[in-house]
Design brief:
Elements lengths: L6 E5 L3 H13 L3 E5 L2 H10 L4 E5 L8 H12 L5 E5 L4 H9 L4 E4 L4 H31 L7 H13 L6 E4 L6 H10 L8 E5 L8 H6 L17 H4 L4 E5 L6 H13 L1 E3 L6 E3 L3 E6 L3 H6 L5 H7 L2 E4 L10 H16 L5 E2 L1 H9 L5 H16 L6 E2 L6 H4 L18 H19 L4 H8 L3 H10 L9
Parallel strand pairs: 1-2, 1-3, 3-4, 4-5, 6-11, 6-12, 7-8, 8-11, 13-14
Antiparallel strand pairs: 9-10
Helix pairs in contact: 2-3, 13-15, 14-18
């Protein structure tokens, strides 16, 4: 019984060598497949899920047959590691194989233990590359800027132009609207992507230590000037990007030092007279009206103009309602992958409610809501979310005035109580959907003409339903 799922293709024009290697592999619980020529090996690579290729270099009187197979394998699937073997090995051949992408080279005759060790290392390397690739795919998915509304398309077009430059970027928008995501996206699309993206969360920085955190300090207790413990965020972000989240929360004194550091790309550590030079791109964000912040004295005007080379304004989610369905689809898929759950389905009524909700917490609140639904129902296959599954605050049932006190209706007939309920219910629905008869009728499951008749019957003025 094969316990190891890794399939290894062994290629050699001498069948007895193929069989010998295959037996060694089977003893280690690998799935061994053999081929005796180039064409046979290519056919197997195309048809089977091969995890590792072991091939001879000199086969069927062709001194480069193995190298040709190596090139094919690398072009077909570069994640398949290749171990080259030869009885005519030399340094030149080994170097050529390595240059063309071979994982390693083994000279025949070889000991089984050495081959097994190389195989284990090659498969470990492959698994590591797969994990890195999976991580990068997930990160790319998380970094995706989702939205096709005219407003958001314009933002993305501007970001495409800004990202490749080294210009400072100032992002404004309400809390939860995705400012840090945009900052990370700009970094990822810049030529600094291989260097750090460092976040300075200004709201959480202690006023007493904020300058030490940003610029570092000279530790007189150690002679090592490169001690990582005294390196500030500016040095950590060298050659990369430093993101100031909620820039207005920095003390004014620190803002003054920041102006100089940004302009000169240099600073002094606290307690040191040695200038530190850096190359850092600055991206800042705030949920405040920054012109008001300048007027009330919480933001220095000179810092504002230093930061606002490329301003980006992110609207609240309720101002880009066209993007909500795309965001829901994106987030549901992302959450299902993250939690290992099934992808939830939303009923048309649920989508109408989510599109009509005001989302005071913006995209962050939408993501939290969908995450809660995924936790609650994601393990169930083909589960459909109806309005009754939504959190109370989304449905608007969290207000005290919405609660029904039965004692007020005990003296009413069923007909009168129903009329009171229907009138309140329809008023609430009209208020939720901003007076839209189309959306209200879709949600409550009533034909438009029937809804109009019911509104008239209950004396509800569609122009004034509060």
């Amino acid at each position: 019984m094969i316990k190891n799922k890794d399939s290894i293709l062994v290629v050699d024009d001498e069948l007895d060598i193929c069989e010998m290697v295959a037996e060694t592999l089977k003893d280690e619980d690998y799935n061994a497949i053999i081929a005796t020529n180039y064409n046979m090996a290519v056919d197997i690579l195309k048809k089977e899920n091969i995890n590792l290729l072991i091939t001879d270099i000199w086969m069927n009187n062709d001194t480069n047959a193995g190298l040709k197979l190596l090139n094919f394998s690398q072009n077909y699937n570069s994640l398949i590691p290749v171990i080259m073997m030869s009885g005519h090995g030399n340094i030149e051949t080994a170097m050529k194989a390595a240059k063309n992408g071979a994982f390693d080279f083994v000279e025949k005759p070889f000991k089984a233990e050495r081959l097994i060790l190389l195989i284990e290392k090659a498969l470990e390397d492959r698994n590591l590359k797969l994990k890195v690739l999976d991580f990068e795919l997930k990160e790319n998915e998380r970094m995706k800027l989702v939205g096709n509304s005219a407003t958001f398309k314009n933002i993305k077009q501007n970001l495409d132009k800004i990202a490749p430059t080294n210009s400072r970027v100032l992002i404004t928008g309400p809390s939860g609207s995705g400012k840090e995501l945009i900052a990370r996206w700009v970094h990822k699309k810049s030529n600094r992507v291989s260097f750090p993206f460092i976040v300075a969360s200004c709201a959480t920085l202690s006023p007493e230590r904020v300058e030490q955190v940003l610029f570092g300090w000279n530790d007189i207790t150690t002679a090592d000037e490169n001690n990582q413990s005294n390196i500030g965020l500016f040095e950590q972000a060298n050659n990369g990007t430093l993101f100031f989240d909620e820039i207005c929360d920095l003390p004014l004194k620190t803002q003054g030092k920041l102006v100089q550091a940004i302009q000169d790309q240099s600073f002094y550590k606290i307690g040191s007279n040695k200038k530190i030079n850096v190359d850092v791109r600055i991206i800042s964000a705030s949920n405040n009206n920054l012109l008001d912040s300048i007027k009330n004295g919480s933001l220095r005007e000179d810092l504002f103009y230093r930061l606002s080379v490329a301003p980006i304004v992110v609207p609240p989610l309720n101002k880009r309602g066209e993007d909500i369905v795309d965001l829901i689809d994106h987030l549901l898929n992302q959450l299902a992958r993250d939690f290992g759950n099934n992808i939830l389905k939303l009923s048309s009524e649920t989508v109408v409610i989510l599109k009509s909700y005001s989302w005071p917490g913006n995209v962050r609140q939408l993501k939290n809501t969908l995450e809660w639904l995924n936790i609650m129902y994601g393990k169930q296959k083909d589960f459909e979310i109806f309005p009754s599954h939504l959190p109370p605050e989304i449905l608007g049932y969290n207000k005290k005035e919405d609660s029904i006190r039965p004692s007020n209706h005990l003296n009413l007939s069923l007909k009168d109580a129903r009329k009171i309920f229907e009138k309140k219910y329809l008023k609430d629905q009209l208020h939720r959907f901003s007076g839209s008869i189309s959306k209200t009728s879709t949600f409550i499951g009533m034909d438009r003409s029937a809804l109009h008749r019911k509104l008239k019957e209950l004396d509800i003025d569609i122009k004034n339903f509060d």
